[in-house]
Design a protein that fits this description.
This protein is an alpha/beta fold. It has helices at 31-41, 58-66, 81-85, 93-98, 118-128, 145-156, 169-182, 239-246, 255-259, 262-268, and strands spanning 2-3, 17-23, 46-52, 71-76, 90-91, 103-106, 112-115, 137-141, 161-165, 187-189, 200-203, 227-230, 250-252, 276-277. Residues 21-103 form the Shikimate dehydrogenase substrate binding N-terminal domain.
Amino acid sequence: MTTVATPPPGPITGNTRLYAVLGDPVTQVQSPGLLNPVFAELGIDAVLVPVHARGADLESVVRGLQRVGNLDGLFATVPHKAAVAGLADRRSRTVEITGSANALRREADGTWLAENFDGSGFVAGLTGAGHDPRGRRVSMAGAGGAGSAIAAALLTAGAANLSVFDPDASRLAELVDRLARHWPGRVSAVPELPLYESDIAVNATPLGLRAGDPLPFQPGDLPPGGVVADIIMKPKETPLLMEAAARGHRVHHGMHMLAGQVDSYRAFFGLGVPRTAG
């Protein structure tokens, strides 16, 4: 059985269902390029578009979009994942633990449910690339929306211990406190990442998104054979990953996190399965 080639997207009509991805900026978002072909493959009359929503305008933008009758879902990217969690009527267990969301779904009764697939997508991509975190020592920079979800997923996947650094001490302490209630003794807030005794180092910050950003950490401090993972999707080859590769470390690109979420998005939004031909 072979999968039918993805057809070109159909025209946008008065029946087209809408999805929006919210960010500040949005020029780097990759989800439209992944999900719009899924809509076409499944024969679904829908489109996902990027929406540039600045922080001060986020609530107004979300509340307005939630009132659009043919809009079925919202996605959130940097830096809105924590804020949109509070704009949903209900939150999944993952969102309650992490305090962040990257997808909101309109329910049949008109209410909105928040979910977060960043963590599960990141771990799926990491494991699929041969870097199973089970039993591994992990250091992570970033306790924001994506970092919160990734931290919970790494612990769920069996990481032996997780050290997290974030310059926002209050945000870091709140995250580690929430995680420690579920995984006591396996997660700690640190003033500096213990890369020298880590197997996997993760950048879950926006550093690398803009030209001239400093490195989130020095990959040279990782032991030989370590894995350096970045969640930045554009550029693909971030300064962190280029530095890590130059030092002989294995690298893991940001696009893997999004690719690992596609099946979860399809299930969450009820998008069915691809058409096949025998």
